[in-house]
Amino acid sequence: MLRPTSIAAFAAVFLFAAPGYAQQDAHIEPVKKILPDIMSAIVQDDLVQALRVSNGKRNGMTQADIDRIEATWQREIDSANRPLIDSVVENGLAARMRQVIAQRGDIITEIGVIDAAGLSIAQSSPNSDIWQGDEPKWQKTYLVGPNAIFIDEVEFDSSTQSMQSQANFTVVDPSTGKAIGAVTVGINVDTLM
Asked: Sign of the CA dihedral 32, 36, 136, 89?
């Protein structure tokens, strides 16, 4: 297995080996060009540490445990009292993700950080769910392992009123070289193109 030593090398591995790579998708190349910069801005010590802590707390979690957390999230969506949602959207890592978005103009619409259980630990803004383990953004990155990047199809995003693609990548623990989570980044394709 290739072990890139930099974000640029990491991106180079992706260019020719990404799952779901499709030459005919016009947004793929522009997203690949900006992704190394975005990844280096996102993957910092605080993100790695937050994933380590979350993975330690959630080690051995069952699907029933995850379902209970998801049910709590769903109850809180329309509630004024939202301790679970606030714990994911109002933490220091989520605040830094909003700074990354602000620094990149209108290109990035959202950022989410997902742990080894497939649960969000930081979201730049609240999503409709906390469990991402049933979605390609986690399945085609974290489950694939280190170096995995998945750029999804372009879809209309009603919250931003723009055409959006999600660029998703595995987060690797630098001390072990193992996958510890994933990040999903909403890319405004209208602005990018």
From this structure: negative
**Interval 21-42: pLDDT, tens:** 343 488 888 899 999 999 999 9
CA 54 to CA 117: how far, in whole Å?
9
The tens digit of pLDDT for each residue in 72-85 reads 999 999 999 999 99
Which of 191, 166, 8, 33 is closest to 105 using CA atoms? 191
Cα-Cα-Cα-Cα dihedral sign, residues 41, 85, 150, 144: positive
Q: Which residues contact 83 (CB under 8 A, 6 or more apart)?
A: 76
The 10 Å Cβ neighbour count of residue 82 is: 18
* CB-based contact 126:79 (threshold 8 Å): no
pTM of the predicted model as reported, rounded to 2 decimal places = 0.84
